[in-house]
Amino acid sequence: MKFLVIEGNIGSGKTTLAKMLAEEMNAKLILEQFADNPFLPKFYKDQERYSFPLELSFLADRYNQIKKEVLNLDLFHPLLIADYYFAKTAIFAQNTLKTDEYHLFRQIFNMVSESVPKPDLYVFLHADTEKLLENIKKRGRDYEQDISPDYLEKIKAGYFSFIKSTHSFPVLIIDINQIDFVENPEHFLLLKNKIFKSNYRSGTNRLILP
C-alpha cells in the first residue's frame, strides 16, 4: 500500500486517526490546509457571495496538494496517508452552492478529477449523527458549533452516494460507534490491523468494530 485515505463526516475523527496511523507507520501525512484559505473568513460573513469562490479555491488547493504529494513519495516515507480525498470537494460543494453554481462547479470538477491519483484504500469512518455532534462539541471549534444534524445527514448522504458509485479502488466503511481509538489503545490496534492486514476488493467493503 502506498496511498491511504482516511475520510469521514465532520467530527468522525478522521484527522486524528490519520495522524496516529502516520506516526505509527512512519508515513508521510497529508492534512487538509483550510485554515489559510483567504475566502474562508469572508464566507462566514457572507455565505451567499463567497460560497462559489471558496469552493473553487478548495478544489484547486486539494487537487494541487494531492497530485504533488502522491507523485513525490520518498524512500524514507513510502506510505502516504491523507485525511481527505479529492471527491470531498464535490460532496461539500453540493451542500453549499446554488444549483446553477454547482452545475458549473461540477463541470470543472469532472474535468480534473480523472487525473487525480486514486488511493490503494479509502477508509470511511462512519458514526451516528449524535456521536458526531458530541465530538464536535467536545473539540470546541467556534465555527463548528452551529452545525445542524440535518447538515451532517446531508454530508453523510453525499459521501454514501460517492462510495456507492466507486468501483475503481477499495472502499472500507468502518462503523466506529462502539469504539474509541483515541483513548483505548486496543481499539486503535484493532483498527490499524484491519486497515493494513487485510486485502479488500474494489468497491464497497463494510466492517463493524469490535
Automatic annotation (TrEMBL):
Gene Ontology MF, one? deoxynucleoside kinase activity
- Mitochondrion: is it a keyword of this entry? no
Keyword terms, alphabetized: ATP-binding, Kinase, Nucleotide-binding, Transferase
Q: What cellular component GO annotations does this protein have? A: cytoplasm
Report any Pfam family annotated for this entry: dNK
* Positions bound to ATP: G8, N9, I10, G11, S12, G13, K14, T15, T16
Domain Deoxynucleoside kinase residues, every copy? 4-195
Name assigned to this protein: Deoxyadenosine/deoxycytidine kinase
Q: Which organism is it from?
A: Mariniphaga anaerophila
Record lineage: Bacteria, Pseudomonadati, Bacteroidota, Bacteroidia, Marinilabiliales
